[in-house]
Queue: 3 jobs
Job 1
Amino acid sequence: MPSANGKIVTWCYLFVHHTKVERVNEKLKERFNTFIHKSIVYKQVKNRVKKEERPTISGLLFVQGDNCDIQRMLHEIDPALYLMNDCSTHRTAVIPDRVMQAFIQVSQMDENRIRFMPHALSYYSTGHPLVRVTSGVLSGFEGYIVRISRDKCLVTSVGDITVAIGGIHKETFENIETYAQLRRKEQNMSVSSSANASDCWREDIKQYFFQPENQLDVIVMANGLHRWIAEACRWMNAGNYMDAMDVACLILKTIGLYFHSAYANSQLSRLKDIWSVCQEANRILVALTENQEVPADVKQRIASERQDLSVCYPFLFLKNE
């Protein structure tokens, strides 16, 4: 659904009490596109089995449109209704239209291909390859290949919802970590092993960096770093403030180091993927600064680190429009 100016509008979502879903959905459909993921269930009714379609997740409702306009209408319908926030940014969770359309298309082909997962996407990173789908309906999706109930699945994120999409055997993939390793090898770069096991995450982050030479390089680096942004958010929410700060600062410093020349390179002018990582890392630092539970010495160090970054790499904090 394009807006008045022809721009493709994103999607967002909310949870509604199951008794109100139908009424809220009908009201929203007067102005917006909506979608409810449904599954087929079978019930024993007397002497026969009855096939029934029902929402997969009770009360989950996707809506396409400007999130401010949607929220205003929700307030008119019921003041208690709110769009869901992204847990890492604490802002309304937004789903690009291309992602949502692929999600809807897969659901329409076979609703049972999609499973809603109980954990955040970062939970599935251990022991599973990070890939980018390069063919089929899901082309452009990133996630982890996980075998669930003998089915090869892509575990990915739709907004802030983790889903596993099964039946992906015919799709082709690009292993992001392997690509990064090959690019580092081509540039004669290596990552030294840390003697301290608790600091091994530093080397893990640095392995995604190399001198960017094309758009794919930028995308690969950004995709690899999003996993560590999610991990930093998890640490922050768990009260591990120092490590969350260190991850965000290391990501910003290393992006500054590798992208200061690319920033002025017209051939790499489309750097929105990596700027998105910068903004997310910066939001973590801001959130830590505003959190009353974070110790004063940590906040002081954050202020010092951000000051140094703004002097050495001022472009890191520019929003990419």
Job 2
Amino acid sequence: MGDTRAKLQAFLASLFHARAEDLQALAAKGFAADARVEVSSPVGTLIGPAQIVTGLIAPLRAAFAPARRRDLMIFGGQNRRDYGGEWVTSITHITGLFTAPLWGVQPSGKLAYLRIGEFWRVENGLIVEARLIVDVLDLIHQTGVWPLAEGHYGAPVVFPSPATQDGLCPSNREDGAAALDVVEAMLSALHVYDPDSFGSDGQVGAGGTWAPDFAWYGPGGIGSTVSWPGFVDHHRAPFLRAFPDRKGGNHYARVGDGNYAAVSGWPSMTMTHRDTYLGVPATGKALTLRVMDFYRVEHGLIAENWVLLDYIDLLQQMGVDVIAQAAQQL
């Protein structure tokens, strides 16, 4: 049967190398006729190869010159959640000179790295379902415009590849269950925390799940950091102050493969906006958040965590259209 991961990687790359007039025929060979692809805001739901091309692939190809995929990791396996299915997950960048508007974001004319988190469900060699988070907020930042009063509690850096450089179709697949076990242990301890220190038992130190020097790579608006103190200062504390009742873990998919694991919820999190976040004053609104997390586990501890969040949608729920606000600043 071959390696589903490698075949999918090759197919996705081909969508950015094929001639424009061949795209629809090519897409029909990789997507089921009724394939459903859910894309983060402002794109939405795309059904079937034709819509997937016109709503996702063609706009990306038109915006970047030349548009190419640069995959950081691609792995997958059988879903541990009841939702089921074989899933292939990936983090990629679409790169190229940003020369044409993309979903309302105005181009910079400069090289851009648009990060995307992807969960693809495959049946009989065809993609039948997918969910993608496109970090549009980070793309806006790369154009030199920032439409919010606050932002980037951590450092806004381009997502790096895994430190071990083995995230593309890892070979030690039998270790995936153990990697996912570590991640699930961490997730089970997240909901109980000290409101003063923002610490949680089972996270760091004796019996913890995070390596002392772990790296945490966050999306546009949050940024990246390292170690538990950095994680608390640059993400956890601001987030929990703003959303103290947040509940997460509502995942449709959890997979492990090699030293890697990935989880995603659509949405994963529910919460109430109780304090200022990214410069947006508390609205008191009940909110939801779409989430993707990708992890590398080493010696039984989480060494790296890449995080994609649909912040365009979250901010819309808070009453802020960041794409429109960014356009007004030009």
Job 3
Amino acid sequence: MATRTPRVLLKTLASIGAVFTLLLQTGCSSVFFYPDQVTYVTPDRLNLEYDDVYLDTPDGETLHGWWLPAQSEPKGTVYFLHGNAQNISSHIMNVAWLPERRYNVFLIDYRGYGRSTGAPDIEGTLHDAETGLRWLTDQPDVQGQPLFLLGQSLGGALGTALASEWVERDEQPPMDGVILDGTFSGFRAIAREKLSEFWLTWPFQVPLSWTITDEYEAHERIADISPVPVMVIHSERDGIIPFHHGERLFEEAEEPKRFLRTDTGHGSTFVIPGYQAAVLGFMDANGE
């Protein structure tokens, strides 16, 4: 019994050291990316027409996506970037309602998600988001029509960086609006918050967060999206990305901007018809 406490302490210290080393080596990637390859539902099960799309990235990966055409004369196109878990087959319900409302939808899986090759990291997924957008803007069905980016959670952070660079480089066609749903204000900030929730990583939340690049912080990039209109959506009941992240993004955004305060769980905004209507109103107003 006399040696039990030291042995337990040594095992605990070893565990902490192992966690610290793993997170340091991965740059805290595990905080952001939880992909899987399970097919949860396909568009045809939701009575949606669709095409499988495969895209090659400049660094040799292959991305998989779905093109969902509008069910009647299209009013525009929505480019959807999903959150950090699972893959497009589990996130499709967030946009499955749009084709009936006369919007085309294109959604992709980042590298390592679903049927896309590779392993995810921040830089890689940013390249994937741009690869998808460039393919989309080359499609005849999209050209000459309003174009909107909808990003949820991680997808909103990626979308903010992508949209700000698109505007700064004066890329064509221009976006007509950017919609951010349940998005965190910065990679470092949310990593620090999540690391602080686990007792093994709590002591290392600050040094580990500094292993994450600060080149793509949404709160620093969102102002650069102007004059493209921005809609920030965040729930007061979001248990994954706290409400203050949405407040900060809206505060840092330049006009024209709109804030939609919701009360659903994280990633559940569009189960509420009223929230669907608010987004449709934003797109209709800015797509004319």
